[in-house]
Specification:
155 residues
Length: 155
């Protein structure tokens, strides 16, 4: 999956897969790219290649996939997507994890259960109409985020 680099080199060796907004592994440019979700834009190449879809459950890191229950393995039967209900619900994942001493544990407790529930519901009941609703909701959220977010102070 293509993404713009938003973290320091070897970030995966320094910390886990969950990233809070205050994670020291984030670069200054990376914070801006993530704030506006611009780090996701290169995934359009994955869509063009046929590796991903515009709408579908977000792909997870391998260590997270290894923890999937038999039920959660259903997520592997569909193409991953750039956006879904879970990514809309947790568009502020970095904010939710901010300030937690263990962002991975916080993710597991605060985000993962609902994210999995939403993704599994999509796999079971997804439709073209639902995809259109998700895309429209994503566009609305992106516009609202740009309009509402104050400029990040420079340091």
């Amino acid at each position: 999956m293509y993404k713009f680099r938003t973290m320091v080199i070897d970030a995966d060796r320094i910390g886990g897969p969950s990233t809070a907004n205050d994670d020291p592994r984030l670069t200054a440019v990376g914070r801006t790219l993530r704030r506006y979700k611009l780090d996701e834009l290169p995934q359009l190449f994955n869509v063009l290649r046929g590796d991903m879809s515009i709408v579908g459950p977000r792909p997870q890191v391998l260590e997270e996939v290894r923890l999937y229950s038999p039920e959660e393995r259903q997520l592997l039967t569909v193409k991953p997507g750039i956006t879904d209900w879970a990514s809309l619900r947790f568009h502020n994942e970095g904010e939710i994890l901010e300030g937690h001493t263990d962002p991975n544990l916080a993710y597991a407790q605060l985000i993962r259960p609902e994210k999995m529930r939403l993704a599994l519901a999509y796999v079971r009941t997804g439709s073209v109409i639902e995809d259109v609703r998700i895309v429209l909701a994503t566009v609305r959220l992106a516009i609202r985020s740009i309009q509402e977010r104050p400029a990040e102070p420079t340091s």
